[in-house]
Specification:
Elements: E1 6-14, E2 17-25, E3 30-38, E4 41-47, H1 50-66, H2 76-89, H3 96-110, H4 116-128, H5 135-145, H6 151-167, H7 177-186, H8 191-210, H9 220-223, H10 240-249, H11 255-264, H12 268-273, E5 279-280, E6 285-288, E7 299-302, H13 305-311, H14 327-338, H15 349-362, H16 365-372, H17 376-383, H18 389-395
Antiparallel strand pairs: 1-2, 2-3, 3-4, 5-6, 6-7
Length: about 400
């Protein structure tokens, strides 16, 4: 039987769907067929009236374009996949194409490096399960937890963090490294003051982490960059002659501060917290307890003979080694009042001097770092080759004048 040939073909289009209507002359009558797919196979829908064929074709094109009859465009396997997907999404209220787009966007964000469900689990553990606290709430909790510390420490925290909680009031888990960097920059401070504020923020964020308000790992505050080269500022040191004159002019209230800083490298804040009972003249060691150390690590410092000699000039059975809240200020005033000509005061010069001359004598950054409570890398990078061995030996041979 000869195959029938279509005499005319009309196209019906709606949206992105086009169906064709074929006119076939069978001699005694004409029929109109609409070509379409159903269950992945090409089908013909036949009509005796052209208008009815065109109307049906237009309605079917609209249905396909709206996605009402996806099986018309799918193979049997594809249709089965579609039905399973619809069942999985049942009850979520989400459309299949919406979920597909969300999946692709998330995978692009992850770069295909991890499974999406693994990423979701990681996020839930680090964010959704955190206890939500605002910055002001965490600041108040930290101040309460540190109320037993020295009045100077608490006052410093209250001043710096009070400023921070006034400016940043949202949840602490939402504060980013960029937020902190912009806030610090906006203070317009010197490098030293900038780093002091940064260190207080590090303390706050580590506290929040311990309380379960932040995820584990490096905090956003720790990710911010310090401005200074190291925690002690610019490296300026005293000469042996300058230190001898300073010690000779000092009274018993400030003498231990000068000697402990110059000949043991102890930080000012640690000296203020030090008690005479923690200086053992029998064993020759000074104990910096964990609760009093800046780095929260206990350390023992072997006293040099000249340090022992100077401390014995002001030693007491017990009590604070220095009664001064700001011994550095008093020491600088001593210089101005008693010394002629005056010696320029060097900020953190006592600790810098100790480390410089100790490195010159020992040439061992590991031992010096253990005594100072700093890292070997920092000691090596900042204090190596700043003085000769002879200058170092002169420094640790500064002794009180013998009374005749």
């Amino acid at each position: 039987m000869a195959r029938e040939q279509a005499q005319n073909v009309e196209s019906v289009t709606h949206g992105g769907v086009t169906l064709k209507v074929y006119e076939v002359d069978r001699g005694h009558r004409k029929i109109f067929s609409v070509a379409h797919k159903e269950n992945g196979r090409r089908q013909l829908k036949q009509f005796s009236d052209q208008g009815a064929a065109l109307t049906w074709a237009l309605n079917r094109a609209k249905e396909i374009d709206r996605g009402k009859t996806p099986s018309l465009m799918l193979s049997p396997d594809e249709a089965a996949i579609y039905r399973r997907a619809k069942q999985i999404l049942a009850g979520t209220g989400r459309a299949l194409d919406e979920v597909a787009r969300e999946y692709v966007d998330a995978r692009d964000t992850l770069g295909g490096a991890v499974r999406l469900d693994d990423a979701a689990t990681y996020y839930a553990e680090r964010r959704l399960r955190l206890v939500q606290r605002t910055v002001p709430e965490v600041v108040d909790e930290l101040l309460e937890a540190r109320a037993h510390k020295s009045a100077r420490h608490v006052k410093d925290l209250r001043g710096r963090l009070g400023r921070f909680k006034r400016d940043v009031t949202g949840y602490i888990a939402n504060v980013t490294q960029r937020d902190l960097a912009l806030w610090l920059r906006g203070l317009g401070l010197s490098s030293r003051s900038h780093d002091n504020f940064r260190q207080v923020l590090v303390l706050l964020f580590r506290f929040a982490q311990k309380q379960g308000y932040l995820p584990e790992g490096r905090t956003e505050a720790e990710k911010t960059e310090p401005m200074g080269d190291n925690g002690d500022g610019e490296i300026a040191i005293f000469t042996a002659d300058e230190m001898r004159r300073l010690l000779s002019a000092a009274g018993n209230d400030v003498l231990p501060y000068l000697a402990l800083g110059a000949f043991a490298g102890i930080r000012t804040a640690e000296i203020v917290r030090l008690d005479w009972q923690e200086i053992n003249f029998e064993t020759g060691y000074i104990e910096i307890k964990k609760s009093k150390a800046k780095t929260k690590g206990r350390r023992l410092i072997k006293m040099q003979p000249n340090l022992v000699a100077w401390l014995k000039k002001a030693v007491k059975p017990s009590g604070p080694v220095t009664p001064l809240a700001r011994p550095e200020k008093t020491a600088s005033e001593v210089i101005a009042a008693k010394l002629d000509p005056a010696i320029p005061w060097k900020r953190n010069g006592l600790r810098h001097s100790y480390c410089t001359y100790r490195m010159a004598v020992l040439q061992n950054e590991h031992q010096v770092s253990a005594e100072m409570g700093n890292s070997p890398a920092m000691v090596y990078a900042n204090y190596r080759a700043l003085a000769t061995k002879e200058q170092g030996e002169q420094w640790f041979n500064i002794m009180p004048e013998q009374k005749s």
